[in-house]
Structure formats: C-alpha cells, structure tokens
Design brief:
It is a single chain. With 575 residues, the chain is α+β, with helices and mostly antiparallel strands. Helix content is 41%, strand content 15%. A hairpin with a 5-residue loop joins strand 14 and strand 15. The protein is globular and about 60 Å long. The protein starts with a strand and ends in a 5-residue tail after the last helix.
Length: 575
C-alpha cells in the first residue's frame, strides 16, 4: 500500500500518512502540482516557511516499463515565482516506487542554523545531523554517503549554490554510476536549502516492490512500447548515436540556434561542438557514447565524456548545455564546456539557466564572448559565494537588472533555452504560455517544426503554432505524470501502437480502463491547476509574453521577428 511521507522541519518530526483517495490516481507532475496547489499559499515567499518541496515518482516508476525512471519535484519556484515541476532521471524514482512512497512532502523551516539529512527506508523518514557535509560539492556528498551507507544507497543532494539559496540552484540525483542527474530548472535547490536539508539518502532494502494488477497484459504492452522506442529514427537511432547534442547542426542549418546572446541564429563554430564531433571525441578517448540515466532506459542518449588523459569529466552532456555555453556564449572548445558542466554538477546549478545567464554577463562586459576559461573561473566564484558569484547565481534576469542589459532572454524570469523563438515560432508559444516560465520541455514543438515528427508545421510561419504548442503541452503534462522520459513522445507522435501501449501499461498496472481521452483530460487538468496557482500568485496574461527585443530585432539568417499579437498568444488557453 502506497504512503505519503511527510517531514516537518519546523518541529523536526516525520510522519507516514495514507494516500487520500483524490490523489490515488495521480503520479509525477500531476501529483506534485496538485499537492503544491492544495497545500502551498500561492503568494508565499518561495524560501519562507509556507512553501513545500514535494517529490513524487510517476505512475509507472518502479515497473519494467522502458524509460519510466523519472522523478518529479515540485514547489513554488524562487526563480519564477510560479508553480514549478522539474523531473530528473537517476535512481530515486524507482526506489521511491518500490518502497511504496507515493510522495515525500517537506514543509516548514528549522528554528536553528544546523544542516540536516533525511534518511528514507520503507518504514519511514529519519532526520539526521548533516553539518559535516555542509559546504561540500555534490560529488563529495555522494562519495561520503556511499562510504557510510553502502553503494546501493540512493542520494538526492544540493551543492553550495543550494545552501546559499541561489535562484538558479538545482537538486542533484545520483545515477546508476554514482554520477549526477538534476532537477535543473526553477531554483528548487534553493527551496531545499531554505529547509536546511543537505541531502536525502534512500535505503530501499526489503522494499515490497511494485505490484501489477495484470502482469501478462503489462508484459505485452511493455514489449510493444519498447519496440516503438527502438524503431523510431530519433529515439532508436539519432539520440543513441549522438545524444541530444545531435541538435547543434540541425538547429544551425535551420537558423534557429541562438548565438551571441540571441543576436544570431547560426554559430560559425558549430562543427567544433556538435554531436558528431562529440561522438568522435568520446570514442577516441575511450569514453561511452551511449549511456542511460536510469535503469531500464533503452534510448541511452547520455554519454560519458573523458578528457585527453582519459579521466572522467562529465556525463549527461546535453544539447541545451552545449548550445548555451557554446553558441550562446561563442565558446567553441568542447573540453572547456565539458569542464564547466562538471563544475555546474558539483556546485549544483542549472546548466541551462547558467548558460543563458553567462550570455547576458558577456553582453554586460563581465567577461568577453568566447572566454571558456573565464566561465570556468566565474563558476568557481558562484560556488564560493563571492559578491559577484551571488549576483551571477541569481540567474539571467538578476544579472540583466544588475548590469542594465536590455537583451535579457527570459520569460517569467527563467532563461530561454536553445531554440530561437523568432525562427522556430512554435517553441515561442510554449515559452510564452508555459506555466513554468520559458521551458522547451513543456511543449517541445521542435519535434514538428524542425524534426518532422508528428507531421510538419512551418517554423517560420504563425499558422498552426498555437494549436501545436497547446496539444504538446497537454500531452507533456500527462507524460510527465507517468514517470516516462519525454523522449517517448517521438515514437508516440509517429508510431500508432506506441501511445495505446503506454495507456495499456497504466491500465494493467492499476487494473483500470483509462482511454486516450482520459489521458488528454488529465493533461488539461494539470495545466489548469498550475495556471490557477499562478493567477492566485499574482500572474496575468501579461506575463505570457516574450521579451520585447524579439519584436524588433530580426534574427539572421531568416531576418524574422516575433510577430504574434497578444490576442493570438492568449488563445492558447482556449480549452
């Protein structure tokens, strides 16, 4: 029987609760957003006592379903002020599910100034002293906890940036190789830091495991689903070969690769940082060009990147990070970007927000464009919390205000990732209307605008973009609730058997009879819950807008601007 683990840091107490009936059919993002909407005062300070941090595995986490190992984390965001859900791979989601933890809710603030850890077993949560790990980087925390508690222990941790409550701090999750995956966006590491929790350790020894109501039906559906993932050219071939960084050359050719703080759509140094170059470099140095971020991942879009001496530098080296530090900051040295990625993992900052922030910092003259060594030096200042480091750690919008920069690519104060909304207009609608601030994963129109997945909508024209973004945001909200990796969307959009197989797995898992319409309605419901929270927090349709420079600065090579009217953007919510 699933349970809710609740931790009150004000009283330093823990409890186990039955799952309310109204939450029983929810998982992942649906559950974190529902709990935050029900239990968090929308106008509260994100770092104050009334915010809550919620972790929830997906509906299929812990089963044998391929790519179902994502954990959702939710709270009110200190970066955006909106509701936030950020999901990550790693080992924690499957451990939670096998232990019967439907959700972990952390509330309140401790009265003293000590650091704490949470130790989770199937029998409950225990609060332990953690002052000895204060100030440590994420890699050192994982190493120390494995030495103390064993190699199988799951770890969720914050780095120094989270301890200092920086708005771009993330929450790191141990992966199967004792490296790091991240709840990256929205500054949720600062929320965990405000509650003085340095880490969560997870001991799933003796866990009862996940029960499946109809094992044979589940097995058949899981087989069909896995075949669809492997048969699709993107999830079965492109991503496993080149990782998500396959997109550098694709977006460069499309003129949608934001370059030099969003002043250009193509980067002259693209060949030096692209997925093809990264693949060849990894193979030459003896790294791993294919790697999964959690057990059961069959897409394997991650990789292990080594330096010239064959020493580990980073893994999970993603397109958005490489684009941001590369094209956006005009750095064409992949080794410098990899080292920066390692530091960001260790100090615990979102690599997308950091990269967009550095583009603004370069425009402000804090360091020159193309200065990879300068980025590495300044990441050190963020980790140490120097005066400049704290300004940078506040994120893109914070740096823009501090230095009077007007080209600040944010929506709801969250940095715009990786795809220029002027030349890929569908993703611009997603950036504008997402309940979470600028977030490409909220409704990944790149699939249809650029990759011809699920049909084709011309990225340079306005026609069909609002409908495309709306349909994908609804579908994504539902997928985020299953614990599935968002990349299952590629075969789900193209292969007729894929989505029914996903629904069949949910039905077989719980012994229910969901239809496709039920799943669509779940996605709509999640978006409306999140939007209502934001409205009660003070947001209006005027916050669903891109920065004005996109309206009057044409971006080469297509020389196009963002040309949607307010009424056209607002039509997104007509459902």
């Amino acid at each position: 029987m699933d349970k809710i683990f609740r931790v009150d840091m004000s009283k330093l107490t823990t409890s186990i609760e039955d799952v309310p009936a109204k939450w029983a059919g929810l998982g992942g993002r649906a559950l974190t957003s529902t709990i935050v909407a029900e239990e968090v005062v929308p106008t509260c300070h994100p770092l104050g006592p009334n915010n809550k941090l919620v972790f929830a595995p997906g509906l299929l986490s812990g089963t044998a379903a391929a790519n179902s190992g994502r954990m959702s984390c939710g709270a009110k965001s200190p970066l955006t002020g909106t509701i936030k859900e950020s999901n990550a791979g790693g080992t924690s989601a499957q451990q939670f599910a096998r232990m019967g933890i439907k959700a972990l809710i952390i509330e309140g603030l401790p009265k003293d100034d000590k650091w704490y850890g949470l130790h989770l077993t199937k029998d409950g949560a225990t609060i332990v002293a953690a002052d000895d790990l204060a100030g440590k980087g994420n890699f050192a925390v994982i190493e120390a906890l494995e030495a103390k508690l064993g190699k199988k222990t799951g770890v969720v941790t914050i780095g120094p940036a989270g301890e200092m409550k920086m708005a771009m701090a993330n929450i790191s999750v141990k992966d199967p190789d004792s490296k790091i995956r991240s709840h990256g966006r929205g500054g949720l590491g600062a929320v965990m830091g405000s509650k003085k929790i340095k880490y969560i350790s997870i001991d799933s020894e003796g866990a009862p495991g996940v029960t499946v109501a109809d094992p044979e039906k589940f097995k058949q559906a899981a087989r069909t689903f896995a075949k669809a993932l492997l048969d699709h050219p993107v999830s079965g071939e492109g991503l496993p070969t080149y990782g998500t960084n396959v997109l550098v050359n694709i977006l460069h050719e499309a003129g949608g690769l934001p370059t030099r703080n969003f002043t250009l759509g193509q980067f002259d140094g693209h060949d030096k940082i692209c997925g093809e170059t990264m693949h060849d470099t990894i193979v030459k140095r003896g790294g791993k060009p294919k790697h999964g971020c959690h057990a059961g991942c069959i897409i394997q879009c991650s990789q292990v990147y080594l330096n010239e001496q064959g020493k580990y530098v980073t893994s999970g080296f993603e397109y958005e990070t490489i684009w941001g530090m590369g094209a956006n900051c005009c750095i064409d040295n992949l080794d410098d970007i990899a080292e920066a990625d390692n530091i960001m993992d260790d100090i615990g900052v979102d690599s997308i927000e950091s990269a967009v922030m550095f583009g603004v910092a370069m425009e402000a003259g804090i360091l020159p464009f193309g200065d990879g060594k300068g980025v590495i030096r300044l990441l050190g200042e963020i980790g140490k919390g120097t005066a400049l480091g704290r300004i940078l750690g506040g994120g893109t919008g914070h740096v823009g205000k501090a230095y009077g920069v007007t080209r600040v690519p944010v929506v709801k104060n969250q940095g715009i990732p990786a795809y220029d909304p002027r030349s890929v207009k569908g993703i611009g609608i997603t950036y504008a209307t997402s309940t979470m601030g600028a977030d490409h994963t909220a409704g990944y129109t790149i699939a249809t605008n650029i990759l011809n997945v699920g049909g084709y909508v011309d990225p340079l024209k306005k026609d069909g973009q609002v409908e495309l973004s709306r349909n994908l945001q609804i579908a994504t909200a539902a997928v985020d609730s299953t614990g599935m990796c968002i990349f299952v969307a590629f075969p789900a959009l193209d292969i007729p058997e894929c989505l029914p197989a996903l629904i069949d797995m949910i039905n077989a898992r719980f012994g229910i009879n969901l239809t496709g319409d039920d799943v669509t309605n779940l996605g709509k419901s999640i978006l409306k819950i999140e939007r209502q929270f934001n409205i009660e927090a003070g947001f209006t349709n005027k916050d669903d807008r891109l920065p004005e420079f996109f309206n009057f600065e044409p971006v080469p090579p297509h020389n196009v601007v963002w040309d949607f009217s307010d009424e056209e953007i607002d039509a997104f919510w007509n459902f």
